[in-house]
Amino acid sequence: MLGIDPTKIAFFAEVLVSGLLSGVLYALVALGFVLIFKASGVFNFAQGAMVLVAGLALVRAFGWLEASMPFWLALPLAIIFAGAVMTGIAWAVERFVLRKLVNQTALTLFMATIGISFVLEGLGQQIFGAQVYKLDLGLPRDNLFALESLFDGGILLNKLDLWSAVLAAVLVAALVIFFQKTRMGRALRAVADDHSAAQSVGIPLTRVWFVVWTVAGLVAIAAASIWGSKVGVQFSLVFVSLKALPVIILGGLTSIPGAIVGGLLIGAGEKLAEVYLGPSVGGGIEQWFAYVVALVVLLVRPQGLFGDRIIERI
Amino acid sequence: MSIRITKLSVLLLSAALCLPAAAEAQENGQFIPVVSYRTGPYAPNGIPWADGIVDYLELVNQRDGGINGVKILYEECETGYATDRGVECYERLKNKGPTGAAFINPLSTGITFALTEKTLVDKIPLITAGFGRSESRDGSVFPWNFPLIGTYWTAADVAIQHIAKELGGTDKLNGRKIVLLYHDSPFGKEPMPVLEVLAKKHGFQLTMIPVTSPGVEQKSQWLQIRQLRPDYVVMWGWGVMNPTAIQEAANVNFPRDKMIGFWFAGAEPDVVPAGAQAVGYKALMLQHGAGRARVHDDLDKYVYGKGLGKAKPADTGGVLFNRGMVGVMLGIEGIRTAMAKYGNKPMTGEQVRWGIEHLALDEKRIKELGFEGMISPVKISCADHEGTRTSRIQQWDGKSWNIISDWYTADEAMLAPLLKEAAARYAKEKGITPRDCSKES
């Protein structure tokens, strides 16, 4: 094949596919940011902390319930419990933080979410514990080899990664439909454009904020479930949110398709960079290389690949 | 509103005025700060470690009435494993108690690097059992640092000795591929000089692959390892990096029994989250492993029996809990050694430094202390702040750690010149004139 060693092509494909699979997961976390930004114009710094709390609530409830009932019953009940916790957080955030800050600047709202982040991290660990909690959702973890007929030994894929990507893709599709096709989704988008204008046409701002923070909380449960079953539920899930930042810079803060494409590009880009460029510069570059990609895009398209271009007339 | 604010101000002012008085009125005793991390990304490892320390301090108070009758006063300070917060804790606690902090054990190599120069000025011993700067073993250059019972360099040499033994001899290392998968931080880079020397000496190919902290994402690293097909992976990780690495190893079908973690990648939080995928994984032991000794019976009786224990009773035999107890026991025995010279009263940092530098625990004393089987004899001196260079290998069977080797002793002929050179380099950089250990008493 053009004189290129097939094993090298197979390895390149492995790196690319694993990057794309990671990218789907990044997109899922990025969606939490995009949802809240679209609906309230708030860049929610607390999204990582929400993933942590959602994961801790889920895994601890699952542990308690599984001791006294079968798996098939314990898991949905644990998800309901985690959903209730995230709904409670959404209510508290709207009632005690956002309601007081209507029509404040975006920077004020952003600073408020930094405060929320620290409160959630501290309270979450205080209530649910700070250990590593193993989360087994019954997903297969063994490997499979694809395209064995094309490449000697095939391309190695992990079933957990594949299932995670499928679950994330389903959730992303559901959110796209919610935003584009439902009445509430349209209301959320209207609020994002202008709080006052949305209120003046009868859109209940407080209810919309409560709904969107709840939806972001549910996305956090999904992200925590997937990442938690890969690395265990623990504080480090907070750092997963850092992976979403270059994704939303690249894809645009206001675009759901942008989060998806951004996730895939960042996932694939950082893995390829680490494997092919990393060794020549001492390695460990994927963390910051993702930001390099995002910054390059910003230079060309400041609103990101799919973000709305905002023109403010004076 | 203004009345409420005034009342609140009066209340806060009164509280503020009362606090120093309360602090000054504290009882006489030996103050030992406990700098720990029970929150943040490294909490799963930090909690059992800190529990072991606090429970042992409580045991000495409850069982013996303190060290030779001098009650131990202690206070815990949360660092979150962040170096800046560690330094903040140190500054806050260093002057507490009638004689200030007896010693500081920061449970972090990053904080150790930051405190190395501060403790020199404040005259407070810096105990780093199993971690910290490897060259600080040289007490002539680092009089205040005590990397007791094992440095990273000792660990690196023992890891290669064990690989050689599994392969059938050191001559079998020639032409083999060994990967060092390391936490991209000062502690992760510590073993590099030793491994580089050993690679050259034995002819194996060494590839060093960094993992960015905290190590949640390691797909790229393990794809590189899959491509490289090494004979062994030596893992220098901490916290979430370890179980993630084990799971990623399984994902690329790398055999877990060809992975050797160093002694901070060999505790229960490193393997339990990986479930069945961790079966067969091996790790070095910082002398002790998991399990119980007589000291645990004393804990049950004097601490947990009185409802004073920090951990769950079932967790008191864990690797990191035991590490906490061993580390603080060595410090306390250093204080006891100092008391033999200076009298049974609270010791100053300088007196404790002398005590640790003259610490000698033989088999008999280790048995008396209830730590039989957990550590080998230790003898500290001015020239040697490590005291012993031995380690064993343990393997995880899915439920517990099993010791699978005899004691290894690090190759002093190889390590000594490296350490001397590194310590001399540090002394030159900092303008330190090394002590003449032959003149120390």
Mean pLDDT across residues of chain B: 92
Mean pLDDT metric of chain A: 85
What is the tally of beta strands of chain A?
A: 2
Strand portion of chain A: under 5%
Taking pLDDT < 50 over at least 5 consecutive residues as the criterion, the unreliable ranges of chain B are 16-25
Tally of DSSP helical segments of chain B: 15
CATH superfamily of the largest domain in chain B: Response regulator
- Cα-based radius of gyration of chain B, to the nearest Å: 22 Å
The radius of gyration of chain A is 21 Å
What is the domain tally of chain B?
2
Give the ordered list of helices and strands of chain A.
HHHHEEHHHHHHH
State the shape of chain A: globular
Strand order in the sheet with the most strands of chain A = 1-2
In percent terms, what proportion of residues of chain B is strand?
A: 5-15%
Topology overview:
The complex is a heterodimer of chains A (314) and B (441).
Chain A: H1 6-40, H2 47-66, H3 71-96, H4 106-128, E1 143-146, E2 155-158, H5 159-181, H6 183-193, H7 195-200, H8 205-231, H9 237-251, H10 256-277, H11 286-300
Antiparallel strand pairs in A: 1-2
Helix pairs in contact in A: 1-5, 1-6, 1-8, 1-9, 1-10, 2-3, 2-4, 2-8, 2-9, 3-8, 5-6, 5-8, 6-8, 9-10, 9-11, 10-11
Chain B: H1 2-24, E1 30-36, H2 43-64, E2 72-78, H3 83-93, H4 109-122, E3 126-127, E4 145-146, H5 152-167, E5 177-183, H6 186-189, H7 192-202, E6 205-211, H8 219-228, E7 232-236, H9 241-251, E8 259-261, H10 268-271, E9 282-285, H11 294-303, H12 319-342, H13 349-357, E10 360-361, H14 363-369, E11 378-379, E12 390-396, E13 401-403, E14 408-409, H15 412-430
Parallel strand pairs in B: 1-2, 3-4, 5-6, 5-7, 7-8, 8-9
Antiparallel strand pairs in B: 9-12, 10-11, 12-13, 12-14
